[in-house]
Amino acid sequence: MSLFDRAELAPADPILGLTEAFNADTRPEKVNLGVGVYLGEDGKLPLMAAVRSAEERVTQQHKPKAYLGIDGMPAYRDAVRALIFGADSAALADGRIATVQTLGGTGALKVGADLLHQLSPEATVLISDPSWENHRALFTRAGFTVDAYRYYDAEAKGIDVDGMLEDLRAAAEGTVVVLHACCHNPTGYDLTGEQWDAVIDVLRERGLVPFLDMAYQGFGFGIAEDGAVVTKFIDSGLNFLLSTSYSKSFSLYGERIGSLSVVLGSAEEAKKVLSQLKIVVRTNYSNPPTEGAALVTTVLTDPELRQSWEDELGSMRERIKTLRQGLVDALAARGISDMGFIAEQLGMFSYSGLTKDQMIALRTEHGVYGLDSGRMCVAALNTGNLDYVADAIASVRG
Ligand code: PLP
Question: What cofactor does its activity depend on (predicted)?
């Protein structure tokens, strides 16, 4: 008997497995609203103009492919820290932030989870109910017990803030709390500034450990607006972790580029934490790749490319809003008037309220792929498939 006979056949990943099923579907009218990817009007993944220019510049340099440092490219670190925390951040100037370049947002979450588990193996991790599917799996795999705090109010189509605060108040000291910084995945409902203040108060009172996950900066209200929550956390004086991803906002999914920052009370603490983060990275994949970091750095530090990126991200954000409204109107035209909330949700997703059976019917009968939870990626709609999707939804709603 081989050792590998012990390996059981695992179920397909709830999101990426759906893409596999989509790819195998031969119906030409099929639509993939499963994975969180922004597609253009032509139904294709865009290569952003600023990224294209940066790529040309980087290629022309014909640089040899040296190893990066364990924590990544220094210029990248500086550029993303200025983006996230502001170039004139006092915490940055004080040296109180430890940052490493990571393999996308997922890599940032895992490096952060491994660090936290080493420091506090008995802690529980709380994620929102519901949350991005991989949060639970990732923190469980890192060795934590994962539980959830109330978040989505299905009746009211919004956030159960009182329930959330109550669950956080009931958490044991040292509990890690994973919070979506903006464009909550999957619900599309974000806390208001005042609600964030209330959450921060409870985090402080209860001695909880915040882990902010920011995968969609720029897709809600704007780069600065979506990032404002980070300033709130800095101003709160709490220590916290922050993962960022540039998969969506630079359309650099396959480059695996993101960052993990830990904001601490002193430069001395930051130095120690960075040294531990480097051990986590070194013992996993040694050091990160260069290409994505070079592209993001070039775009962020060149004023012209930066402006072009901000403008294009702005038009992506606005286009998603138009698609949301387009879907709401198309549904209304088919007699469905109770899905107007889709236009109010933020980011790439709509938590449609459709049942698991309806989502399965969408898939099997119409080739429209969304998650069983009812999550649909509205950023994958276009004027060519919107009516088809509306017809399909109207058909499964009966
Ligand atoms: N966090 C959230 C909330 C996400 O939705 C995603 C991606 O879908 C990630 C993290 C991971 O981002 P990346 O693809 O850069 O690993």
Answer: pyridoxal 5'-phosphate
